[in-house]
Specification:
Length: 123
């Protein structure tokens, strides 16, 4: 009986930690790249430089934009949810830079995708 209680309590604590971790807001600063081109960027020696070299005109092409977006920060690609895709597309369209634009992306990572709350271009 005590073993079941301890096991149940451990499971509740573990689940609580997972839920709390998902509720934590994170901020990434990096380059927005469409998902279709992200695999090519990941193959480069310097991922951040390769991401910075990607053009917004490419990312905004119909097929590329349709694949979705994500941000390269600290050498990792984090994919966006649907809301994040819409915000990323709007941020890219607003940017005056065709390549090398850096964005600050805030949201929560849930199930491997980022639920984006805000995207702002960093000058």
């Amino acid at each position: 009986m005590l073993k079941k209680f301890i096991f149940s309590l451990s499971a509740i604590i573990a689940l609580s930690l997972v839920v709390m971790a998902q509720d934590k807001s994170v901020t990434f600063t990096g380059h927005i790249v469409d998902k279709a081109c992200s695999a090519r960027v990941l193959k480069k020696d310097n991922v951040q430089a390769a991401a910075a070299a990607e053009t917004k005109s490419c990312a905004l092409m119909e097929n590329c934009a349709k694949s979705g977006f994500g941000v390269f920060a600290d050498g990792k690609y984090t994919e966006f949810s649907d809301k994040g895709n819409a915000l990323a597309k709007a941020a890219l369209e607003k940017s005056k830079k065709d390549k090398g634009a850096t964005f600050k992306v805030t949201g929560k990572v849930v199930g491997g995708k980022m639920e984006v709350d805000n995207i702002t271009e960093v000058e």
